[in-house]
Amino acid sequence: MRGSRFMAEIQLEKTALGLELGSTRIKAVLIGPEHAVLASGAHDWENRLEHGYWTYALDDVWAGVQDAFARLARQVQERYGTPLHTVGAMGVSGMMHGYLPFARDGAQLAAFRTWRNTTTERAAALLTERFAFNVPQRWSVAHLYQAILDGEPHVRDIAYLTTLAGYVHWRLTGERVLGVGEASGMFPIDSVACGYDAGMEKTFDALLAQEGMPYRLADILPRVLCAGAAAGTLTAEGACLLDPTGVLRPGVPLCPPEGDAGTGMAATNSVGVRTGNVSAGTSVFAMAVLERPLARVYPEIDMVTTPTGRPVAMVHCNTCTSDLDAWVRVLGEMAGAAGAKLEKPRLYDLFYQKALEGEADCGGLVSYNYYSGEPVTGVESGRPLFMRRPDARFTLANFARVQLYAAMATLKLGMDILVVEEGVRLDTLLGHGGLFKTPVAGQKLLAGALGVPVAVMETAGEGGPWGMALLAAYCVRRAEGQTLEEYLADTVFRGAQGSVQQPDAADTAGFARFLTDYKSGLAVEKAAAAALR
């Protein structure tokens, strides 16, 4: 019986809990000693545009975290007949980057500014020049410096600056720390030292002094930890925050908090050199673990790290499936109005399968999925836009295909820098996220678009929360002497099943024709943003 089989594992503290705060969903996943998912819980939420910034309220953070955990705990009780009073280890992950400043007394000084904001162009450009290292607009240090340049009054009172994952971890444990992968989205990292780059830190401290700030960077940033390091334990206050019912006990060890990029790498076994992964959901980013440094600085390429500090080239695009989701929703409303109400998974399967029937170049259709600005293409403010020539072949299949192509186009422009200009070699790309939930379609079209084999494992649907649970499990097993790379390859993914789609020549050629029109039409996208305020 399933319940009796796993009850002892839960009671004997052999489980690991991963909690991830994504852009549209907060999810908790509990795994057993063999890394299979025992239970899960989720809570949907959305960002809001307030006073010119994309943000989430911290009250909503805790309402969502508590709801996701409560749903997971309820599932444990129902499946295994035991209350979830403890776990063997846990870890917190969240969407990377952004800006969460706090005063000495713990008061929040400014609304949370998420990765989605493109309001730091001046600061990012100045820091990139000073560091000779690409600092993207969404990085925490860019937000900090922009706030200083803008003379925002709160900046003088900052005692602690962190990310969403770092904030939740801090409240649960009292520890002001970050995993190195998450920290690499705050400030440039020295991979050898597994810490912030000392030279760049000194440069930034000089800028702080020049602006009259009463602190140095080291005074306000979280301490950096590599995967496997102890990162504190769940306090009594933290246990009550996570589980207000009081069932969950304090004392659970936590691993370093990581970002969604790091959990994606763990969830796809993409932490070794020449491995890479694509996470495709609300945003899309591709990660390539490098054999050597890049030849020069590219504004389109972020340099981040694996959870162990290995250098990673990252192509990050702000929007992926949001516009596609909107079109599927509208088509679902049409189907419902016609008396054919379809469940959401069925709608998506139909739409994706129809895309496979479309012409390789979408019949001349062009679509832009930009809900916000997109630094990779130099678009400051996004407007979703679909357009076509009068003689374009406007069919449902071509329309479905162009929505998937739009979700991949900006990523392709960034990946060409790595693969074509830098000669980065990848044996395969592991795909995970919503774009790959329907079998074959997203995987096949992305392989054709990028010209790289794309693999999807059976575990791909588990995603970041599962990856976070793996990092938590590794943290308590670190005494066994395995590196994270060895632990994932030899213990977690040994014998893992999956499928690989090789690039199809017709798809590759068709996507290239589509991309020619896409690049030409970027002027229209920019004009739309200027015209529709």
Explain what you see.
The chain is 41% helix and 18% strand. It has 533 residues and is an alpha/beta fold. It contains 18 helices and 22 strands. A hairpin with a 3-residue loop joins strand 14 and strand 15. It has helices at residues 2-11, 58-80, 121-131, 140-149, 164-173, 180-183, 198-210, 217-220, 236-242, 260-267, 322-337, 344-357, 396-421, 441-450, 463-477, 484-492, 505-520, 522-531, and strands spanning 16-21, 25-31, 37-44, 48-50, 53-55, 89-94, 100-102, 160-162, 177-179, 189-190, 195-196, 223-225, 258-259, 275-280, 284-289, 302-305, 311-317, 365-368, 385-388, 428-432, 454-457, 498-501. The strands form 7 sheets. The chain has a 7-stranded mixed beta sheet with strand order 16-17-15-14-20-21-22, with helices on both faces. Strands 3-2-1-6-13 form a 5-stranded mixed beta sheet. It has a two-stranded antiparallel ribbon with strand order 4-5. It folds into 3 domains: 96-246, ATPase, nucleotide binding domain (Nucleotidyltransferase, domain 5), CATH 3.30.420; 264-316 and 414-501, ATPase, nucleotide binding domain (Nucleotidyltransferase, domain 5), CATH 3.30.420; 322-410 and 509-531, no CATH class.
